[in-house]
């Protein structure tokens, strides 16, 4: 089976980027090990602190963030980091050539129930002029990413990654400690009959998504003329992994609860990297108004509405926004 290194070389990734990815994944392997130890390692449960997102941090949020930060900061490849769990950007090496953004632990409410969690990341070039503590270089659209991916800490530890030459899936071979290519060039089926949305928020949705989901639920008796199934992992990594594997549409739409927060998911740490993976696998990733990867961020913790997945299903959903 092909190793990660050879696939990255085949995809034309420069050596320094390959080394950076390997460094980042060394951190993820450590998280994978800690996660697998669960209660035995005392890593489960909450802390007493709140992050900049207004969420109570789980111990694993803090531990994972620290592992990735320590691993990347000393590598020499990274000029600065932005993280869901850090209020400000974290300055690294002045001569580092890359910027890394990450959600160190996605789906952290699943830690207590031994269910799916993961790490989501993206990498962009660091401009020469940039000072390591300057957040403005992170405020570029997702189209500027040079690589993005996630590591899913499931029954097996899997990596989904793209450097812009297709989305590939790898599985961590724990016997030798490396990621091996298990599916090259993932293609998401263009049609689907599976959707993912937290329907407990229904009363807060706007009209287009209200009508779209009502029509999905109406099934074969409604305008969509087929029955749909629903899934919700409560971890975006789990839901997006399912969409990459067998198609579907994943939605975290605009929410009228707080007009200042346009959706729950974070552009830099969640929406953009997943959009890159989905687009590279032939799917679509939209805010409802435009392509996620073209959103110009105004601050590092910006949130966006997200609609991602099978091409034709996302197109059908977007028709409700046009109407
Ligand atoms: P995080 O654990 O990094 O804060 O992200 C949680 C996100 C995302 O992974 C998931 O899709 C969504 O929150 C779940 O939200 P609900 O609480 O509405 O289920
Ligand atoms: Mn969180
Ligand atoms: Mn998350
Ligand atoms: Mn998180």
UniProtKB/TrEMBL annotation:
Keywords: Carbohydrate metabolism, Cytoplasm, Hydrolase, Magnesium, Metal-binding. Mg(2+) 1 binds at residues 84, 103, 105. It is found in: Cytoplasm. Residues 188-321 form the Fructose-1-6-bisphosphatase class 1 C-terminal domain. Its cofactor is Mg(2+). GO terms for molecular function: fructose 1,6-bisphosphate 1-phosphatase activity. It is an enzyme of class 3 (hydrolase). Pathway: Carbohydrate biosynthesis; Calvin cycle. It catalyses: beta-D-fructose 1,6-bisphosphate + H2O = beta-D-fructose 6-phosphate + phosphate. This is Fructose-1,6-bisphosphatase class 1.
């Amino acid at each position: 089976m092909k190793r990660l290194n050879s696939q990255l070389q085949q995809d034309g990734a420069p050596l320094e980027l390959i080394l950076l990815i390997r460094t980042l994944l060394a951190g993820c392997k450590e998280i994978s090990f800690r996660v697998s130890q669960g209660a035995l390692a005392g890593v489960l449960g909450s802390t007493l602190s709140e992050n900049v997102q207004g969420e109570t941090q789980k111990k694993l949020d803090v531990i994972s963030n620290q592992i990735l930060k320590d691993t990347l900061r000393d590598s020499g490849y990274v000029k600065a980091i932005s993280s869901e769990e850090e209020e400000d950007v974290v300055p690294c090496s002045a001569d580092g050539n890359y910027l890394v953004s990450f959600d160190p632990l996605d789906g952290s409410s699943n830690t207590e129930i031994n269910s799916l969690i993961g790490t989501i990341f993206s990498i962009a070039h660091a401009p020469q002029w940039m000072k390591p503590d300057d957040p403005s270089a992170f405020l570029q659209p997702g189209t500027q990413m040079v690589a993005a991916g996630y590591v899913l800490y499931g029954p097996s530890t899997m990596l989904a990654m793209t450097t812009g030459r297709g989305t590939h899936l790898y599985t961590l071979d724990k016997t030798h400690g490396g990621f091996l290519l298990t599916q090259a060039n993932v293609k998401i089926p263009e049609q689907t009959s599976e959707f993912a949305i937290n329907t407990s928020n229904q009363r807060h949705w706007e009209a287009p998504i209200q009508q779209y989901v009502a029509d999905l639920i109406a099934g074969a008796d409604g305008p969509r003329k087929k029955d749909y199934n629903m899934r919700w992992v409560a971890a975006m990594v789990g839901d997006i992994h399912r969409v990459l594997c067998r198609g579907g549409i994943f939605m975290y739409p605009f929410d009228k609860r707080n007009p200042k927060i346009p959706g729950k998911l974070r552009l830099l740490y969640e929406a953009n990297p997943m959009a890159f993976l989905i687009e590279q696998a032939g799917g679509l990733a939209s805010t409802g108004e435009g392509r996620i990867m073209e959103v110009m961020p105004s601050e590092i913790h910006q949130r966006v509405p997200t609609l991602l997945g099978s091409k034709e299903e996302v197109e059908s959903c977007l028709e409700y926004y046009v109407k």
